[in-house]
Amino acid sequence: MLKIAQISTNTITVPPKAYGGTQRDIHYLTEELVRRGHHVVLFAKKGSTAQATETFEYPTNDPEEQLEFIMSNLPDDVDIIHDHYGIVAKANPPIPTIRNSHSKGVTGVQIPVYVSKTILKRFGKNRGYYVHNGIRVNDYAFRKKKRSYLLFLGRLIEQKGVHLAIKVAQKTGKELIIAGTLNDRNYFNTQIKPHLNKRIRYVGPVGGKTKMNLLANASCVLFTSTWNEPFGLVLIEALASGTPVLGFKKGAVPEVLKGLPQLLCSNTKEMILKVKNHAGFPSAYRCRHYVRAHFSDSVMTDNFLKLYDKVIKGKKYKIIKNSTWNKKLKKIQNKELE
To answer: What is the domain range of residue 230?
Structure first.
């Protein structure tokens, strides 16, 4: 049995109530580790409900105070720290620590870990490791019979290509439901709002059963992201629901859809043709099986446990005498003596 500290941010609860891919990963990993008999100490935002062995809720929004809080409550016999936030890894504790980056390259930490091989190579310069995201497949509603609408699910920003999903819907005559958080008001007002009507609808942020039903009933999900996606959680959420998802060959999308290459598109024109023909799409059962075999919470946990073992046995972490961790530790100890 390992004693593992999971470090989340103080921005979104674990699990998230709506949007929050990182926190959902932490949730699935935490509960699967506990289910396998490991002791998990979770540091997270107040209101988190993941079933860790122990949960500590941040009492402050100040990162420095959060670090002191973690250090004061971290068990002495913890085997490894899994930092999804960065504040612990940056302090360089004398404990095996991995810094899990869900989006970009990281420096100044013991062991960086990325969510895809693509990001490890592109931003991590092949320094560190990668472990794919995983989801609890049975949490996702499954429908073999689909309705006719297309679905866009994600943040409403230009890089996510919502305007391109609208173009696909208009060119194919399909109904489009747009769901997600409105992060760029100007983009929404100029590129999205003018096209909204009875057939192209924005339903706002979604979570829980509403999100699951939208995914499960869609004829196809459009993943129109135009930037180098670190992973693309919506891809596997759609497939777990038995729904094909079309995505551009950007970032880690080809890596995630490697086993279903017929779902990759070079451009909007190709995406339009595939929506029109709907030929060669994998069956609902094949979509779900693909996720269970490659991107489930169980597979993700297997891979992290292998990495934990490698890091602990390899002792690749550095003990830095004048690290932030040691300076903070002295400060905490002096406070206790006052």
So the answer is: 138-294
Give me the helices (H) in the chain, please.
21-35, 63-73, 87-90, 117-122, 162-172, 185-187, 208-217, 233-240, 253-256, 268-277, 284-294, 297-314, 324-337
pTM score, two decimals? 0.91
- The domain tally of the chain equals 2
Question: Comparing 194-198, 325-329, 331-335, which segment has the lowest mean pLDDT?
Answer: 331-335
Output the six-digit token pair for 87.
């504040």
List the CATH number of the domain containing 257: 3.40.50.2000
In our burial notation (b when 16+ CB lie closer than 10 A, e otherwise), range 82-104 reads bbbbbbbbbbbbebbbbbbbbee
Pair (143, 126) in one structural domain: no
**pLDDT in the model for residue 19:** 66
pLDDT at 163: 98
* pLDDT score for 300: 98
End-to-end alpha carbon distance in the chain = 37
338 burial (CB, 10 Å; 0-12 / 13-18 / 19+) is exposed
Same domain, 40 and 155: no
Between CA 5 and CA 7 the distance in angstroms is: 6
Cα distance between residue 16 and residue 18, in whole Å? 5
User: Token pair for residue 23?
Assistant: 């926190």
Query: Are 168 and 189 contained in the same domain?
Result: yes
What SS3 class is residue 222?
strand
* Element at 43 (helix H, strand E): strand 39-44
Check if the beta carbon of residue 11 is closer than 8 Å to that of residue 85. Answer: no
Question: Do both 204 and 328 map to the same domain?
Answer: no
Do 123 and 144 share a domain, yes or no? no
Residue 325 has pLDDT above 90, yes or no: no
pLDDT in tens, 10-56: 999 999 876 667 898 999 999 999 999 999 999 999 999 999 999 99
